Amino acid sequence: MKASGADSIDIADQSEFLELHNVNVARGERVVLHDVDLAVRTGEHVAILGPNGCGKSTLIMAITCQVYPIVRPGMVVRIFGRERWDLTQLRRHFGVVAAELPGERTAVTTGINAVIAGFFSASTLWPNLHVTQEMRDCALEALERIEATHLAGQLVGEMSAGEKRRILIARALVHRPRQLLLDEPSNALDLAAQRELRDTLRGLAREGTGLVLVTHHLGDILPEIDRIILMRGGSIVGDGPREELLTEARLTELFSAPVRIGRDEEWLHSW
Q1: According to DSSP H, which parts of 43-86 are helical?
Q2: How far apart (Å, rounded) are the C-alpha atoms in residues 231 and 55?
Q3: In a domain? residue 120
Q4: Angstrom distance (rounded) from CA 88 to CA 175
Q5: Domain annotation covers residue 163
Q6: What residues make up the domain containing 128?
Q7: In terms of pTM, does the model score above 0.85?
Q8: Which pLDDT tens digit goes with each residue over 67-89?
Q9: pLDDT tens across 246-271, in order?
Q10: Helix H segments across the chain?
Q11: Does residue 129 lie within any of the structural domains?
Q12: Pairing of strands 227-232, 235-241
């Protein structure tokens, strides 16, 4: 997904973060996404909900250009209004919170250096990388935004799972992106770390950073998220307001198992 002139593109006036039409994606010989149509406005908060294996993570990989759709008539993939991007430039406009920090050297990298390495999509600050003072300032600002400056000097290998997740979020924020994508953000976190993570994401949402959150946990869906997309079998089977889609009947059908929903103030939980 590469385009000449991408360095100078101005997306300030783009109202659409994402436009997908007639998107099919194959993994090996199997088609795992089927005729996906989806539009997300810049700054919009969206949750993509579905059981394991329904295609949620593949959809994120298609959005981030880690996999490419099958070329068919009428297929459209536009990000911030463009069909072709230089991927290095695209990363400056939206951040992706990965499942884990990359690379074997990450464990012996300090928190601040792991965040700075996000500018280069690297696991650590290798000697050949040129780090500017502006990069260091942006990394510190990212840690401040999520109240994690205390992790700046700590080695990543000595951090808890929740602390590592904060470093991942800070890495995604170094470019001050307008949109953030998170794939199963609460996986492997204990209850306290889940609460801290959700408080952090609520703060980002209130600041105006758009969130696209992929999950199969109802508790991950922040009160600020008012649009729900339901996926099953590689297709979008529901797209609308949370009040209409987060019901026991709809989720029982989606997960093919009885689902009960409880409410705790602004939050929902299921069992």
Answers
A1: 56-63
A2: 7
A3: yes
A4: 11
A5: yes
A6: 101-176
A7: yes
A8: 889 999 999 999 988 888 777 77
A9: 999 999 999 999 999 998 878 888 88
A10: 56-63, 87-90, 111-116, 133-145, 161-173, 191-207, 242-245, 248-255
A11: yes
A12: antiparallel
